[in-house]
Design a protein that fits this description.
single chain, about 140 residues, mainly alpha, elongated
C-alpha cells in the first residue's frame, strides 16, 4: 500500500505532529493528518511535496535564527564577516540550536553570559571543534 511497513503500528510518530509543521504550516499538518486518517497511504508525490515543504520551513527557520545570531553578536548582516566574527556567529547558532526554543533572542547581555558559561562546560571543546570542522569542510573560511 505504498511506503508503509508490512504491519503498521499506531504508536509511531506521525509527520503531521512534527512541531515545525504544526507551528509553521498548519494547513500542511492538517493535510498530512487527513492522509494518515484515510488509511490510503502516501503516494510518492505526497512524500516529495511534504519533504519540499519541510525543507523550506527548516531553511526559513534557520535563516531567521542566523539573523538573530547576527543581532546577538552586534553584527549587521550587511557588513563583511571576519574569521573571528564567523566563529562567534556559528557558536551562537549552535548554542541556541542546542538550547532549543523558546529562547530570548533579544537579550544580548544574557546571550553573552550564556556563551561564557558554555565556554566553561565540559563539552565546549567538542562544540568548537564541530564548528571549525564545518567551516573548513564548507570552504567558508575567510582569508
Amino acid at each position: 500500500k505504498g511506503l508503509e511497513p508490512p504491519s503498521p503500528t499506531r504508536n509511531t510518530m506521525r509527520v503531521s505532529n512534527v512541531s515545525i509543521i504544526v507551528a509553521q504550516a498548519p494547513a500542511l499538518a492538517a493535510a498530512l493528518e487527513d492522509l494518515y486518517q484515510s488509511d490510503r497511504g502516501l503516494a510518492l508525490s505526497d512524500v516529495v511535496g511534504a519533504i519540499a515543504a519541510l525543507e523550506d520551513l527548516i531553511i526559513e527557520e534557520s535563516a531567521r535564527l542566523l539573523n538573530d545570531c547576527y543581532f546577538l553578536n552586534g553584527i549587521t548582516p550587511d557588513e563583511p564577516v571576519t574569521e573571528s566574527m564567523l566563529h562567534e556567529l556559528l557558536r551562537s547558532y549552535l548554542l541556541i540550536f542546542r538550547w532549543g526554543a523558546p529562547a530570548n533572542l533579544t537579550d544580548v547581555k544574557g546571550h553573552k553570559a550564556m556563551k561564557m558559561n558554555a565556554a566553561n562546560a565540559s563539552d565546549w571543546g567538542a562544540l568548537v571543534q564541530f564548528e571549525r570542522d564545518t567551516i573548513q569542510a564548507s570552504g567558508l573560511e575567510p582569508e
